[in-house]
Amino acid sequence: MAEEQGTSFGDLLRHYRALAGLSQVALASRTGISKEAVSMLERGVRARPRNATVLRLAQALRLPPEERTALTAAARRARSTPAGGAVPPESGAGIPPDPIPHFVGRDAELEELHRKLQARRRVAVHGLGGIGKTQLVVQYLHRRRAEYPDGVFWVRAEQETGLVGDLASLAWRLRLPERETRQQVRQIEAVLVWLRAHERWLLVLDNVAAMSLDAVRRWLSPGLPGHLVATSRTPMWSARVGLEPLSTDVARRFLLDRAGEADADAALAVAEALGGLPLALEQAAAYLEVSGRDLAGYAGLLRTSLPQLMREGKPEDYPRPVAGTWLISFERVAGELPAAAALLRLCAFLAPDDIPVSALRAGAAHLPEPLRPALGDEVELDRTTGVLARYSLARRQSDGLRVHRLVQAVVRDALGPDQRAWLGAAVRLLHAVMPEEPQLHPALWPLCARLVAHVQVADELGGAGTEEPAAMGALMDRIGAYLRCRGDFDRARPAYERALSIHESVHGADHPITADSLSALAGLLRERGELAAARPLQERALAIRERTLGPDHVETSNSLNNLGFLLRDQGDLSGATLLLERALAIRERVLGPEHHGTATILNNLALVLIDQCELAAARPLLERALAIRERTLGPEHNLTAECLCNLGHLLTLLGEPDAARPLLERSVATLRRILGPDHPHTARVQQRLANQRQAQGQLAEARDLHADALATLERTLGPKHLFTIEGSRALRAVTRELQRSGDAGQTVTS
After folding, report:
1. How many distinct helices (H) and strands (E) make up the chain?
2. What is the pLDDT of residue 514?
């Protein structure tokens, strides 16, 4: 190929550079010619290289005399081409670009592309703009070029005019007689004849867009014997390779290599902020080179100026920065289906992963036009998400929608002053679909689990500063309640504290809603064992409710119950009894004797009586509470299981372990199903079951149950929590009893 008489100057220059093992950048450095000029010469955009330029290139490439002569002759042919004659406007069309020097993390995708090409002959590589589709294919060509002796051809396919022009220009690459004609149709037909007559070629259609799909189908119909690869943001063709962002570890290693640094923590922070997007990573590297910043400095800048950075630092091998890559797609989506553009704006104010499509539908009535009708109809919803998927701006899998976090950042930035309105819409949607009082509705916990991240993102983006601040506070209360009932106390606390801050700002320090938030936070602190910190919050909540709602209001009874139970934990049993009896009277009068809220007071008052050794008085209260909860909440509810446990514990203390056993076993089984085996409430019930086994003389089983429960409490509540300390004492006691029995594996009769 190299010395063939008809080879173009650009092809020959590229061939000699490849033999020398030089990149375009390295050759430019050796010659003093810009990298862009080298690229244009190789692509034929500069068709008339000067003698001095040819000489510098030959010297830099260290060409022997015969190859230097061939390069000079090719340059002379390019200079002697008649004006307005045979050379097409871009005679370098069809020549693949160079692979980038820092290509990482795509070996599995390269192998998948090869496998599918062998099986199907035409494969589409699709994904989000900036995900690395083009560079993957370039790398494939670089590694597999020897498998295509008939040629490798590169065609721009974003627009029909570019596709048609580049296909016609292949007549020059192939030196077909029809290249001299000015009719592109004849040139393309000649190219297709050649492609049908040869088998070992690869044709790449780069960046196929919706507007050029028809042209691809028209000119390159199935049946061609070679291999076709298309890169596209649209999942076209049945054989395709979808690209995802790079893993965090691969992205981190890439940044360390590109920046020449060893700060792994800073590289990890940048990789996570950029979501593993190859274009954004390369853009970051370019910014570091130009600005002189290190990775730690760039990580700090990302926290405050991410949208601006996405508009800066265009990488050398890419036509535009990250933001520009997507803005074109945004405009096309808005023109094609306004509802799809609106959905993308809404999703920009939610977490990037697992946006529940069912929640979008359920909350459609709270959203603005044109989203409301689009999300309210299943077919229209599918069409709307389908448009975003076609441009690879979002990915839907069953009930989950995913949008890359950088796409979200660019969308938010492009909204300008409209950001506040769309953030408010996201808050209204979440407020409509996030369950109230999640502790009463375990069947809704899977939905709550999916919504937690979306609520937190909306708050971080300033949800309390929209026209929906009260809704934002209520949402933080709800996720705090959900996390608390799941035993995730560490995450529940900041949610409750944030809710309290919002409510105090919106409603004032003495509002009943602020009292609700104070009481919820205090309840969590009590469960964490922080009794001294919890008490003033509960006392403040009670004072607010008595002053604003009155001493006989049901919300006041809530504070009486909460403070009473806290006094019980602090050992003030008489004070706890007085508050709980007052709360019970209010609830029976306001809610009725058969309400599940009344059952809560009955349960708590019975526990105080047990602590006072008034076991006979406690029994009818627990039996009544259990009956109410089974009737109102159902037998498979976590609060029903709590009553079962307390009644079983009481029966054990009353010397009725056989009657206690089925209640405790049922309680443990229910909580393991609802809360999971690693929840502190499950562990507490398991301790009660261990006590029952111990009372029956089944010491080895009691020891094992206590040990398992203690491990859970140490892991979830910590070694200093009251429940953990009690569990440790119980385990030591049963172990000593086993040792005294003389046989740790034998059942001892009580």
Report:
1. 35, 8
2. 96
Strand partners, 151: 201
Q: Which residues of 591-612 are buried (b: 16+ CB within 10 A; e: fewer)?
A: beeebbbbbbbbbbbbbbbbee
Secondary structure percentages of the chain, helix, strand, coil, to 5: 70, 5, 25
Cβ atoms of 176 and 151 closer than 8 Å: no
- Total-model pTM: 0.68
Report pLDDT digits (tens) over 173-208: 888 888 877 788 888 899 999 999 999 999 999 888
In sequence order, what are the beta bridge partners of 202? Answer: 152, 227
Among residues 311, 325, 253, 267, which one has the least CA distance to residue 102?
253
The CA distance from 152 to 617, in Å, is 90
State the amino acid at position 92 in one-letter form.
G
- Angle at CA 611, nearest 5°, toward 610 and 613? 60
Label the pairing between strands 395-397 and 400-402: antiparallel
- Amino acid, single-letter form, for residue 660: A
For 544-577, write each residue's pLDDT tens digit. Answer: 999 999 999 999 999 999 999 999 999 999 999 9
Contact in structure between 668 and 689 (CB atoms under 8 Å): yes
Are 366 and 359 spatial neighbours (Cβ–Cβ below 8 Å)? no
| 5, 235, 435, 473, 633 from 480: Cα distances, Å | 77, 40, 12, 11, 22
- In 176-324 the beta strands, taken as DSSP E runs, fall at 201-208, 227-232, 240-242
pLDDT at 463: 84
Answer whether 464's CB lies under 8 Å from 426's CB: no
Residue 363 carries which DSSP code? T
CA atoms within 13 A on the CB side of 232: 28
Number of residues assigned to the chain: 750
DSSP 180: G
**Low-confidence stretches of the chain (pLDDT beneath 50):** 1-5, 80-92, 744-750
